[in-house]
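Hi R.,

Here are the chain sequences for the assembly we discussed:
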Amino acid sequence: MSIKEADRILPPTTGDQAPSRERRSVVQPSRIARYEPLVIGTLSVVFVLTVWQLVANARIMPVLFLPGPWDVAKAFVVLFQTGDIWLDIMTSGEELAIGFGMAIVFGLLIGLGMGWYTRFQYAMDPFVNFFYSTPRIVLIPLFIIWFGIDIQSKIAVIFLGALFPIIINTMAGVRNTEAALLRVARSFGASDRLIFQRVVLPGSVPFILTGFRLGVGHALTGVVVGELIAAKHGVGQLIAIAQNTFQTPKMLAAVLLIAGTGMILTTIFQRIENRFQSWRPQIRR
Amino acid sequence: MYDRSAKLSAKGVVIDYWLHRSRTLFTAVQGVDLSVRDGEFVAIVGPSGCGKTTFLNAVDGLIPVSGGSLALDGREITKPGPDRAMVFQQPGLLPWRTVLGNVMFGVEAQRSMGKEEAIARAKQQIELVGLSGFEDAFPLELSGGMQQRVNLARALLTDPEMLLLDEPFAALDAQTREMMQLELLKIWSKTRKTALFITHDIKEAIYLADRVIVFTRRPGRVKTVVDITLSRPRDLRIKRDPQFLTYEDQIWESIQEELAVPAERLIAGVPAA
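And here is the predicted structure of the full complex:
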């Protein structure tokens, strides 16, 4: 291509103005490229579901062993036609809300405290390390002895599950405050309180939200496993019953419910995180 | 005790600090005597690691002196105060705040100005440093030179008695650096703030300052003081002036002598006698 041809094809440049720091490429971006993540993602899901359905339709295995996606979808609809499902969802939801809510409050307080006060960190470190490296699930039998098979024992395990990722990430956020920013603040005579509120805390937000997102996974594990072991109601309990009565499609439908909840909560925290990061030049959307 | 005519007066200043890992006391500067007059622009140059930045940090009050006295307007310096403002080598801007928010951070930390007034004055400072139109931009959207303008505006907004500049243009490319030197002189001639400027760039020191102080290598002391009598206002062409080049040779020779010091004095952690 000669230079003249290039002149005709290329759009006018912005001239003297420095380009803003958005994503760049040397070829003109196509309009389709924007929807690429969505399109490819959807296609790959459709592909996997199709293969699954085909294998299931071949009926090499009985439905009990391998239900197809269509069986699961039907079970999902049936699930919502009976009244009990709402009691299960409400129970699990309540456990999750209280347990995870408490984990956020205490995780933030302890994490910020450990990041800001070194001596508090020295005091807490042994416990945090101990609990973080132990699967908290193993404590469920103890919680059942303490709190019974009502929601309290599940709240306890959800709380402990989500607490430590939140503590550790929050602490990392505080600790990762740039030394240069602290020096600037000190140089202008900022009080510790002001440094904490306007330098350390805003800088820790991405870390804290990452802690929340990791906490969601641990909390949901707590809900399901806690209820599998012993519960009166709940989605985990639903799974346990479906399992024991050989209703595999129903079981998978309940799993779908849990997975959906996890994806929604994670997406919410991701959105909040993006909102707080609007100052960061975008590399890709 | 203090030189009455001096704004900043340093007498026999010693600064040591502990190196945690090697558990040794490290002497960064030893016996610095100098004074800066009101409204004067003084530049300190010296071999790298000579303790010039450490000395500036002590003037700012970020680190304590271990010996001697360091006073501003006759008052001993013990901690940072609103009478001094530092322009840092790294801009140190809060990435989640806009240019306006960052310029206001200094007075906000000092709690010396109401919000309305701070916004109005911050806008004036932004104009002064040539960033009009970028008030709402975020630091990561700015070039290195523009970030340093924000850094400078933040310091100027606190209206200090003395401006401390720690190699503020060291990280910039050659052209931007010269532009910034020119602009700094323009701004300085409007405000006539007493300024202490640390640099390793000899030309930069001569171009900006009324007086250039050469430090010895570590532990730093004042080696030579060169009065720069070039007329002001100075444009960048003055850097080709024969008188300018004479100063440059003189200071360069002075620093070279320091670089030729026998190696045994350079071993880290061993304070020179």
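Residues 12-17 of chain A have pLDDT under 50 and may be disordered. The CA atoms of residues 182 and 195 of chain A lie 7 Å apart.

Let me know if anything looks off.

Best,
T.
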